[in-house]
Amino acid sequence: MKSLAIEREFGSGGHEIGEKVAELAKISCYDGSLMAQVAESKGLSLDMLKEYDEKKTGSVLYNIGLLASYNYNRNNSQVFELYYELQKTIKSLAIQGPAVFIGRSSTEILRDNPNTVRVFIYSSDVDKRIDRIVRTENVTPDQAKKLIEKKERERREYFKFWTDKEWSDKANYDMALNTSTLSVKDCARILLSAIEAPAV
């Protein structure tokens, strides 16, 4: 069995799909909380972690702050230290056995791992995304639209910052699944089949 790495549009159901695949395959699922675990294990500041998180990465103020602490030596930056530790942890977990990794540019971190299927989950129907966000986030449709804009920008900038690639470019992935036409269960079954398939 292979590991699965997921990038997803906000409101596409990608996180739910990842959890469902992990449940069906009986393997571990790692999401944003993995970064907090890595930070704690390395004694890195959780306050700094908040600055590093997707909500800040890529913003002008964040980058100015990052450069101020850069000291012309990349290895001296706690932000970069955390990212490199996160990279090492994800790669190590994937070597230990199959798992599901959601976000955190895991699709690029595991790009050279032949035992990983990399997928982008999206929805071509914005109204369906809005409906899902209204249900899961308990917000109004107008608030859901603003959340989509905000989260899309954050994820795009986060991915670009760490990988120098475009987040939504399908060339970065082994497959892309559209949840406007496929249900969560359909996507989970497709991905379960993909990670269970023998290596070619």
Layout of helices and strands:
Elements: E1 3-8, H1 14-25, E2 28-30, H2 33-41, H3 46-52, H4 60-70, H5 78-96, E3 99-102, H6 106-109, E4 116-122, H7 126-137, H8 141-163, E5 175-178, H9 184-196
Parallel strand pairs: 1-3, 1-4, 2-3, 4-5
Helix pairs in contact: 1-9, 2-5, 7-8
Structural account:
- This protein is an alpha/beta fold and 200 residues long.
- The chain has 9 helices and 5 strands.
- Helix 1 (14-25) packs across helix 9 and helix 7 packs across helix 8 (141-163).
- The chain is globular, with a radius of gyration of 17 Å.
**Backbone CA Rg:** 17 Å
| Element order: H for helix, E for strand | EHEHHHHEHEHHEH
Judged by helices, strands and strand pairing, the structural class is alpha/beta
Largest sheet at a glance? 5 strands, parallel
Low-confidence sequence ranges: 54-65, 67-76
CATH class: Alpha Beta
Strand percentage lies at: 5-15%
Q: Remind me, CATH topology?
A: Rossmann fold
Instruction: Based on Cα principal axes, name the global outline.
Output: globular
Architecture, CATH level 2? 3-Layer(aba) Sandwich
What proportion of the residues is helical, as a percent range? 55-70%
Instruction: Provide the number of structural domains.
Output: 1
Report the mean per-residue pLDDT as an integer: 85
Tell me the strand order in the biggest sheet.
Answer: 2-3-1-4-5
Question: Which features does this protein show?
Answer:
200 residues, alpha/beta, Rossmann fold, 5-stranded parallel beta sheet, 5 strands, 55% helix, 12% strand, globular
